[in-house]
Amino acid sequence: MNFLSHFYFERDNHDENMVIGVILPDLVKNAQKESNLYPLKEKHLFEADKYQLSILSGWEKHLEVDRIFHSSEFFKTQTNALKQLILPVFDEKSPVKPFFLAHIGLELVLDHLLTVKGAVSIPTFYEQLTLADKPALAHFLKNCGLNNTSTFFSFLEQFISSRYLFSYQKMENISYALNRICMRLWENPFTEVQLSLLTERLEAYKESIEPDYMEIFNGIEGMLPPLF
């Protein structure tokens, strides 16, 4: 799941350190894709600081939500449905893998629906990130083995200040985001014509799942352990 979908499960959580912990695995990967952190293997390193424990709890919840989501029938069915819908976007020269695009596309469309339906508050999301204890976050990352945190915090500052997730309210920006993600892996993944067609297909897909998209959020919420 993407940022806003993870935040959906914290929409009423006033612990800003847990909130940033919930999206921290994705923040780290976006900031430094070569970083692989495994804080749950060393829980004792965070026990002396309640803020770090909150961040760790958020990290653990992120992994559990992703585990449930990616093993769900909803994910399998909807990824395949979106894949079939977007296949006309590709030509024989396209380097992009349709399943990869459908996987990420599904997650971004869910974020889009949460936004336009008012199921999450983007201003609240950014406010929580701003309030999170940054010294505790730095100590958390160092305890995970990320000794040089300057790159991460530069990314985090830009992520918060840009308010980029507001752009998810428009479907053409979802296509743009998908293109940017693909550009990390492949050169010139889409032409302008293909991007326009991709937007049309994503809009049609959104309309098809809009009546029932909350079933996956309700399902995950019902499966989360009580400690969360």
UniProtKB/TrEMBL annotation:
One of its GO terms (biological process) is fatty acid biosynthetic process. It comes from the Bacteria. GO terms for molecular function: [acyl-carrier-protein] phosphodiesterase activity. InterPro entries: ACP_PD. Pfam families: ACP_PD. This is Acyl carrier protein phosphodiesterase. It comes from Pedobacter steynii.
